[in-house]
């Protein structure tokens, strides 16, 4: 059995498929279908496309409900559950905060600007009955960016399995789904990015199957008066996280679950994150601001 590798770009990220197959034709077909699935999900849920379901829901904010397809309904149900189980920290309405946060500017928004936009944030302001969704306030928005890539990784892995791939790995910009180990049973060795030295790994995690996702304060940030402000915003306050870990990596049966776990752990902060992840029985790796690595 031979390993075949495929690279492509999607969701503003470098992506790679590593598939084991007896014949190149099998791997090539699986890769073609998986890439098409990732691009389909990107087009369906991109807030940058006027014809996406997300854009149609957002355009109707304050006007009337929008009926959705079964896939979108399942993702909205997941978002509702994640909101409840995270005590409101995982909130797909919080993307609207980008209107006042520009991490390229090097300038903090005013307290009044944040106060003005917070009324547009809150899943509790959304009317969702399982078939139709209404954003009750004009100007509200949904943003699937916090879990769309993870969903795409899981979906691409499912497509590969259906195409006959038993061993392989899907990586979409650091969000990973392992369909199984290497054919000899050895795990994939996944390098975890050092949050302060992005060209190097701070740890290596073995992964035989399931999802792995990371979140950290290193992706987009700015430093103002010596204080680091990350792009990870608390939907309750409108402000970036403070007193949190520099990075969190989580392993779960699905990349979707791993990604949500990592994001919420960052928002929970150093005191609560470990207990919360332990309560969910999700393996994790945490990087403290001083570089200390804490692994479950």
Question: Explain this structure to me?
Answer:
The protein is α+β, with helices and mostly antiparallel strands and 296 residues long. The chain has three domains: 1-47 and 145-186, ApbE-like domains (T-fold); 48-142, Orthogonal Bundle (T-fold), CATH 1.10.3980.10; 189-296, Roll (T-fold). The protein is built from six helices and 15 strands. The strands form four sheets. It has an eight-stranded antiparallel sheet with strand order 1-2-6-7-10-13-14-15, covered by helices on one side. It has a three-stranded antiparallel sheet with strand order 3-5-4, with helices on one face. Strand 14 and strand 15 form a beta hairpin. Helix 1 runs antiparallel to helix 5 and helix 5 crosses helix 6. The longest helix has 25 residues, at 255-279.
Using the coordinates shown, work out and report the CATH topology of the largest domain: T-fold
- Which percent range fits the helix content? 25-40%
CATH homologous superfamily classification of the largest domain: ApbE-like domains
Largest sheet: 8 strands, antiparallel
Secondary structure: number of strands: 15
The rough form would be described as: globular
The chain-level mean pLDDT equals 95
H-E order: EEHHEHHEEHEEEEEEEEHEE
**Highest-level CATH class of the largest domain:** Alpha Beta
Spatial ordering of strands, largest sheet: 1-2-6-7-10-13-14-15
Contiguous helical run count: 6
Q: How many domains make up the 3D coordinates?
A: 3
**Mind telling me the C-alpha Rg?**
19 Å
Parts with pLDDT < 50 across at least 5 consecutive residues: none
Indicate the proportion of strand residues.
25-35%
CATH-defined architecture of the largest domain:
Roll
Q: What separation lies between the terminal Cα atoms?
A: 34 Å
């Amino acid at each position: 059995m031979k390993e075949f590798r495929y690279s492509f770009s999607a969701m503003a990220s470098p992506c790679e498929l590593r598939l084991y197959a007896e014949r190149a034709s099998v791997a090539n077909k699986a890769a073609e279908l998986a890439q098409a699935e990732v691009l389909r999900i990107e087009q369906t849920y991109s807030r940058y496309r006027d014809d996406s379901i997300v854009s149609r829901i957002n355009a109707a904010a304050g006007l009337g409900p929008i009926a959705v397809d079964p896939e979108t309904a399942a993702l909205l149900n997941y978002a509702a559950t994640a909101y409840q189980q995270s005590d409101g920290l995982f909130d797909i309405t919080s993307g609207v905060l980008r209107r006042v946060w520009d991490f390229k500017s090097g300038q903090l928004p005013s307290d009044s600007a944040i106060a003005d936009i917070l009324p547009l944030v809150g899943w509790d302001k959304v009317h969702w009955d399982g078939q139709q969704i209404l954003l009750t306030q004009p100007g509200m928005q949904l943003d699937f960016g916090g879990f769309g890539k993870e969903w795409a990784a899981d979906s691409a892995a499912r497509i590969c399995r259906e195409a006959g791939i038993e061993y392989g790995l899907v990586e979409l910009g650091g969000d990973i789904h392992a369909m199984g180990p290497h054919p000899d049973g050895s795990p994939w060795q996944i390098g975890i990015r050092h949050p302060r030295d992005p060209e190097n790994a701070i740890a290596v995690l073995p992964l035989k199957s399931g999802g792995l996702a990371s979140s950290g304060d290193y992706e987009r940030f700015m430093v103002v008066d010596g204080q680091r402000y990350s792009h990870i915003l608390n939907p309750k306050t409108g402000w970036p996280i403070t007193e949190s870990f520099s990075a969190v990596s989580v392993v779960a049966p699905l990349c979707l679950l791993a990604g949500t776990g990592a994001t919420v752990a960052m928002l929970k902060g150093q005191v609560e994150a470990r207990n919360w992840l332990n309560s969910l029985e999700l393996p994790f790796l945490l990087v403290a601001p001083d570089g200390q690595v804490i692994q479950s």
